[in-house]
Design goal:
Chain A: It is found in: Nucleus. Chain A: It comes from Sesamum angolense. Chain A: Keywords: Nucleus, tRNA processing. The complex is a heterodimer of chains A (457) and B (278). Chain A is built from 14 helices and 16 strands. Chain A is of the alpha/beta class and 457 residues long. Among the domains of chain A are: 70 residues, no CATH class; 245 residues, Vaccinia Virus protein VP39 (Rossmann fold). In chain A, β9, α8 and β10 form a beta-alpha-beta unit. Chain A is elongated. Helix content of chain B is 28%, strand content 28%. In chain B, α1 packs antiparallel against α3. The longest helix of chain B has 13 residues. In chain B, a hairpin with a 5-residue loop joins β2 and β3. Classes of the chains: A alpha/beta (457), B alpha/beta (278).
Chain lengths: 457, 278
């Protein structure tokens, strides 16, 4: 088996593993306690606890690296933490302790006197330049009950103190997976409570792959559009459609590090433009062209100043829900030549009308899905799959029933994804105590040639 | 042919041609077009997708289904251009979806120690038009690890092996830094052991179970309690009602319920990320 030359050069910008100036990153603080998006520039900063740190040291680091706040002469700064790969003796030791644990909580009394170190003591240590790790060690040394705890709760105690006094920042790649998880964890309502396994199923059920022309109704701020574009890899198209003249916002798309080639493939077109026109009416084409032009103007007006603001405003809304204030002074490159979410050019619309779309995804939490499906399913090629997401079961059940009656589709399936995470530890493996009880519902099917449709010759 | 090649793209004008792979869908009575079967009912000829392929492929081994497959592809962060390693190949159900995700310029290298199974899989990928994206190798990954030529080259690795912990040291060599591993195991004891082995070179170790519950939908005519007469016989009531012409005026209810019998467990999916040490 020999390596092929073609894949040696596959380091497309979509798959870069080292950060660069101006790239979008996902910062995971203290193992998911706080998640925020930022753009890495020389001037961007984040606030962790009372410290405001520049993001400059993150530029040029591999995704997946961890940072810790340290205080130096020039104030607090982020410093890279290199994990050890072999030196896990401590963990191994702990594991063996857990296995033969004899201690329990009989000696623990909750009377708030367990910690002898006071707040003033800690402040004093800080003034003398103690690192976060040193403070954590001091807290453990001064805890009366620490030695009485089980090894398991000792570890929990250590992690709790480490999060407070020596917070860690993990640099993550903004992929559909990580972006969806971050939103679901902190702002699920912004993405219509769409869970990551549900999103992954939508991409499968809609057969999203290279060279696909995917029609979407994405009212989830662009999470669906972005996830589809990620799978297209700069080929095909994702066309976001809407009623009226204003396309849905797709702010989340900017959090992916999409190449220009991919951005070009993210388009929008109104339902009126996509509806089949009756042949021979050249007037309608002219009208369409006019509509496109006016729309394009409106569009540039509406969208041009937004790029920077949205990232910031999102961070602001984040900080509102966090224990600490956040201020990410994200200043992305002011004018990028190619922007995602442009108006679909006429030739693309023409081709879609002629060939049909190769798949359809609908994510419209507040609208009647049947009303959308009956308009859009006919815009698909024969045998093309579609999938509809909804938080509630009932609208999808009605829609499924109607699709059956109208004989518009086969292979109809109404399903509910279920996801459970496990804690896996020596002698302590069990499902997580908390889980998401609903990731929403999906209705999927395949478009067929209906009896009432004219057979093309 | 799976439509990952632009020339095989679905289109309203595309006709089924000689040599095309179609999935024959038979139920109730161009692609997506209706044909009368010998039994008098309808069959539909559909363009193949990895999902339809999973339903029709010949089961040489236990296979992965859509819920696990979708989650694996997304959680492994597979995008066009990625290099993905897989072992074992089995029936190639997951491989087909991996190929869809890495197209057009990525590659899936899949290994099975069973020579005949590997050959059958290779034939399948030829038929489904994936042979330019998938290479099937015969190798005992548990015993020998992945070949040296992949060192530091894989974006993601998927393991479906009886003793995945034996292959994990090799995975840590072939993965790029921050690359993701997924191990699928039906038993929790396998997961336990894998997780212990993962701790030395991996981080972000997470174990999931994912399922898909299907619902059936029907339109029902639920009678009004006020119209009934206690334990009076059903057929009697029905006659009365249709006589009154009530049946047609009554709004029908669309009801959904979970299917009776369902898959309760497939396997545990353990994901881990190679630590960044550079």
């Amino acid at each position: 088996m020999s390596a092929k030359n073609s894949e040696e050069s596959l380091s497309g910008s979509q798959n870069r593993r080292i950060t660069w100036e101006g790239c979008s990153v996902l910062l995971d603080i203290n193992d998911g306690d706080r998640v925020l998006f930022a753009r890495l520039t020389a001037g961007s900063k984040i606030k962790i606890g009372n410290n405001s740190c520049s993001l400059q040291p993150l530029i040029g680091c591999p995704f997946g690296s961890s940072f810790q706040v340290e205080v130096g002469g020039g104030g607090p700064f982020l410093s890279r933490v290199i994990p050890s790969t072999e030196g896990n003796n401590l963990v191994d030791k702990m594991d063996s302790q857990i296995m033969e644990e004899r201690r329990d909580n009989r000696a623990i009394v909750d009377n708030n006197t367990a910690q002898t170190l006071t707040g003033e003591d800690i402040d004093d240590m800080r003034r003398k330049g103690a690192t976060g790790d040193e403070i954590v060690e001091a807290l453990i040394a001064n805890s009366v009950t620490f030695e009485k705890k089980t090894a398991f709760s000792q570890e929990k105690y250590r992690i709790k103190k480490q999060k407070k006094y020596a917070p860690r920042v993990l640099l993550r790649r903004p992929f559909a997976r990580s972006i969806c998880e971050a939103y679901f964890k902190k702002h699920a309502e912004k993405i219509g409570f769409l869970r990551v396994d549900t999103l992954s199923l939508m991409l499968s059920l809609a057969n999203v792959t290279v060279h696909s022309d995917v029609l979407v109704v994405d009212m989830l701020d662009g999470i669906v559009t972005g996830a589809v574009a990620e799978r297209l890899g700069g080929t095909g198209y994702v066309c976001n459609t809407y009623c009226g003249i204003t396309p849905y916002p797709i702010n989340i798309v900017r959090m992916f590090n999409f190449s220009d080639e991919t951005c070009k493939r993210i388009l929008h077109a109104s339902l009126a433009e996509l509806r089949p026109t009756h042949s021979g009416s050249s007037a309608s084409i002219d009208e369409l062209e006019d509509a496109c032009n006016t729309n394009r103007q409106q569009n540039t007006e509406a969208l041009s100043p937004s790029s920077a603001i949205d990232l910031v405003s999102m961070d602001e809304s984040y900080s509102g829900n966090m224990e600490t204030a956040t201020n990410v002074a994200a200043s992305p490159k002011s004018s990028k030549s190619i922007r995602a979410g442009e108006k679909a050019p006429l030739e693309a619309i023409k081709s879609w009308k002629e060939n049909g779309f190769s798949s359809l995804i609908i994510a419209a939490p507040d609208l009647d899905v049947w009303g959308i499906a009956k308009e859009l399913v006919p815009l698909l090629s024969y045998s093309a799959p579609f999938v509809i997401y909804h938080q509630y079961l009932q609208p999808l059940a009605s829609c499924m029933h109607n699709l059956q009656i109208e004989k518009m589709a086969i292979g109809l399936q109404l399903s509910e994804p279920w996801l459970r995470e496990y804690q896996v530890l020596p002698s302590r493996t069990h499902p997580h105590m908390q889980m998401s009880s609903s990731g929403g519902y999906l209705l999927s099917g395949i478009r067929i040639t209906g009896t009432d449709q004219p057979q093309p010759n | 042919m799976l439509p990952i090649d632009p020339t095989n793209k679905l289109s309203l004008n595309r006709r089924i041609m000689e040599g095309d792979l179609v999935v024959v869908y038979e139920r109730y009575d161009t692609f997506g077009s209706k044909v009368f079967s010998s039994k008098g009912g309808f069959v539909y000829l559909l363009a193949p997708t990895p999902e339809l392929w999973t339903l029709v492929l010949s089961h040489r081994t236990q296979i992965l289904y859509i819920a696990d497959i979708s989650f694996v592809v997304m959680y492994l962060e597979i995008v066009p251009g990625c290099v993905v390693l897989e072992s074992g190949t089995g029936s190639g159900s997951l491989t087909t979806s991996l190929a869809r995700a890495i197209a057009p310029n990525g590659h899936v290298y899949t290994f099975d120690f069973h020579e005949q199974r590997a050959a059958s899989a290779r034939e399948d990928f030829e038929r489904t038009g994936l042979s330019s994206l998938v290479t099937v190798g015969v190798r005992d990954i548990q015993g020998e690890g992945f070949p040296d030529e992949f060192f530091g080259r894989a974006d993601s690795v998927f393991l479906d092996l009886p003793q995945p912990w034996l292959a994990i040291p090799s995975v840590s060599k072939v993965l790029q830094q921050d690359g993701v591993l997924c191990s699928f195991s039906p038993c929790i004891e396998q997961v336990q052991r894998s997780c212990e082995t993962l701790k030395s070179h991996f981080t972000d170790i997470r174990t999931f179970e994912v399922l898909l519950h299907a619902y059936e939908v029907r339109e029902g005519n639920l009678g009004s309690w006020q119209d009934t007469d206690g334990g009076l016989h059903k057929s009697n009531k029905k006659r009365q009602r249709s006589a009154n012409g009530l049946e047609s005026s009554k709004p029908k209810t669309i009801m959904a319920r979970r299917n009776g019998e369902t898959r309760g467990h497939t396997g545990y999916l353990t994901f881990a990320r190679l630590k960044c040490t550079m």
